[in-house]
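Reminder to self: keep the SMILES exactly as supplied, no canonicalising. Ligand is pyridoxal-5'-phosphate.
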Amino acid sequence: MPATPPARDAVTSNSLATDPNRLSQLFGDDDGLLPLWIAEPYVDLAPGVVAALETRSGTGWYGYEARPRALIDSFWEWMASRHGWDGAGLNTTVSPSVGTSIGVLIEELTEPGEGVLLQPPVFTDFKPLVTRANRTPVRSPLVLTDDGYHMDLDDLETKAADPNTRMMILCNPHNPVGRVWTRDELADVAAICARHDVFVVADEIHADLALPPFRFTPFASVAAASGVSWAATHGPIKTFGLAGVCDTLLVTGDADVSKLFRTRSSQLHLTRNNVFGVAAFEAGYRTGAEWLDQLLALISSNVALLREGLPPGIGIIEPESTYLAWIDFRGLGMDVPELARWFAGSAHLALSPGHWFGREGAGFARMTIATPPAQIEDAVARLTTAVDAI
Ligand SMILES: Cc1ncc(COP(=O)(O)O)c(C=O)c1O
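Structure tokens returned for the bound complex:
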């Protein structure tokens, strides 16, 4: 007899499930660590998604299943209703992961040695995707001012103007600093990259996680006016906590890029889908809106808990999106190794240390905040005790 599944009508009741092997590899063997380092929601997932997976699992048939066209339709209906973004005239292709899409685009659209622009501190996978393909990361760091993180557009233009720079990976919204780039900022990026013939890969996997009143602007909506070539990554993996199951999507306005991508995908057999992923993908987009609204409200209230509760010396960079808080520990005056030891050893917290995202992240750490409020209160209490003990 299977155990009765837990009630799934609240977004706040799940415990912190995490991969114990990975946790101890990264942070040591402390059983009491509170694991808040990975970008996934630690809450009960959308009931429609869980039900779809349970139903699919109950069929007892897990063989080859063609991907229904309805999958892509469900994405575009969701995009139209949540973001006012219409896919007319765009090419949409399924891809096993965001990393796969970016890796294939790097291979197809640039040559070894050529430059790929990144804006650190930024998602940890981008740089290795560039270096492992023997391309050159070109850094245009974000700038932190009193009103948050901004792009340095002069620097971006200088680096884009180098004829060796062929591609830019834009993180929109930005992991880890939480910016939702405005239409003007995106239009500036599009104009710069169009002027210098730099292809833009907009990683928009956190699109649905803009925290009201902030609103996601698709790079596609500014691209046409500039004439820039671009592609964007999308999908339900972050929105609905399905990174271990679902495929993602690659959207582009450029039919030639789409063709290159499809040809390479079919050559490498990247097109086989996971039957559970198909079920969960469509269920998320068709049934998950109310759950997502609750999740966004929970994240915003957790930001307030952090803002009000963090002890002196520690501050939060106000996120405009994502379920990740970028926390500023520079006031504690510790260097990178000292701070990493202090999180795990004194505060008993597994956080992503800021330097993982580039050297500009030194003194910061990323904390997952899509959790029940009790976990945030626990994290704040641990930090407060550890600060008192310094
Ligand atoms: C900005 C961004 N892109 C991509 C990913 C990962 O996507 P995938 O696992 O599909 O490569 C993440 C995961 O945290 C992310 O934050």
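Points to follow up:
Residues 1-13 have pLDDT under 50 and may be disordered.
The CA atoms of residues 112 and 224 lie 28 Å apart.
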